[in-house]
Specification:
By secondary structure, the protein is α/β, with parallel strands linked by helices. The protein has a single domain, classed as P-loop containing nucleotide triphosphate hydrolases (Rossmann fold, 3-Layer(aba) Sandwich). 47% of the residues lie in helices and 16% in strands. The chain has 12 helices and 8 strands. It has an 8-stranded mixed beta sheet, with helices on both faces. Strand 3 and strand 4 form a beta hairpin. Helix 2 crosses helix 11, helix 6 packs antiparallel against helix 12 and helix 8 runs parallel beside helix 9. The longest helix is centred in the C-terminal third of the chain and has 19 residues. Keywords: ATP-binding, Nucleotide-binding. One of its GO terms (molecular function) is ATP hydrolysis activity. It holds the Pfam family ParA. This is MinD/ParA family protein.
Length: 288
């Protein structure tokens, strides 16, 4: 385990000749139980498998969902950083297909209680870490909290996960509205999970699209849908990401979503993207 961690740290110290411009994404949901973390993990693994350098940051306070879904117990988590035991780059863990992730814990809520020196250290190390990756994906907790909102408002894109259930769609719209009132520019990409059919998925997206346009004058983009596939709960039970079984309908749907995401390039490349994210985050944190 120590040898693996040491090898990973060496990788993070080596920068490619061409400089990385990390795109930041927040994966959110209006309520729990819609499969948000499972989507985040399998989406990130698939991006990584296609040759991209991806960091998945588990931001679900106290839950540690990514470790659970992977059947793993990470040597370090974000808690170790805020206890000043380890640097950010040292708490990165390697997952399937070359995915890198930072395990969650109770650390995020503590970000608002630490002294300015440690907060500066967090944003500085985060900025340095981003130089290694193409994509940094924040798997946020369900709903909106003061802690999570600062990260959500700082990212380049937001992926909103919902299911076809009316309560899920209503909660997704409430989430969209809350964020829209604070940031009208950030793109919203919609994923419909547990769709009973293609028609079910399209209708669910259209319900969100119509109310967003009518009441917020806001456009949302369809990223894709994932069928209600028995392979998903079986994979969760086995603690193995379902996308590693390339034969299931759900894994094929994730691959299709990633391919569409790569092709559409919802936000243009910006040389100052990482600085933009970190500077916005610092502004929110220091205004607390």
């Amino acid at each position: 385990m120590k040898d693996q961690a040491e090898a990973l740290r060496k990788k993070l110290l080596q920068k490619d000749q061409k400089s990385m411009i990390a795109k930041t994404l927040a994966v959110v949901s209006g309520k729990g139980g819609v499969g948000k973390s499972n989507f985040s993990l399998n989406f990130a693994i698939t991006l990584s498998k296609k040759g991209h350098k991806v960091l998945l940051f588990d931001m679900d306070v106290g839950m540690g969902n990514i470790d659970i879904l992977l059947g793993n117990s990470s040597q370090y988590s974000i808690v170790d950083f805020f206890d000043e035991q380890e640097s950010l780059k040292n708490i990165v863990t390697e997952g399937p297909n070359g995915l890198h992730y930072i395990a969650g814990g109770t650390g995020l809520s503590r970000l608002f209680k630490v002294e300015e020196r440690l907060m500066n250290k967090f944003t500085e190390e985060l900025s340095a870490l981003f130089e290694y990756y193409e994509y940094v994906i924040f798997d946020m907790g369900a709903g909106v909290t003061e802690e999570s909102l600062h990260f959500i408002l700082s990212v380049d894109e937001i992926i909103l996960v919902t299911t076809p259930e009316p309560t899920s769609v209503t909660d997704a719209y409430s989430m969209l509205k809350h964020i829209h009132m604070l940031n009208k520019q950030v793109p919203f990409l919609i994923v419909v999970n547990r769709a009973l059919s293609e028609e079910d998925g399209v209708q669910t997206f259209n319900r969100l699209k119509i109310v967003a346009k009518r009441f917020l004058d806001r456009e949302v983009e369809p990223l894709g849908m994932i069928p209600d596939d028995r392979a998903i709960p079986l994979a969760v039970k086995k603690q193995v990401p379902f996308v590693l079984d390339g034969k299931s309908a759900a894994s094929k749907a994730i691959i299709q979503i990633v391919e569409q995401y790569e092709q559409q390039n919802f936000t243009e490349l910006q040389p100052a993207r990482t600085f933009h994210f970190v500077s916005k985050l610092k502004q929110f944190l220091f205004e607390r």
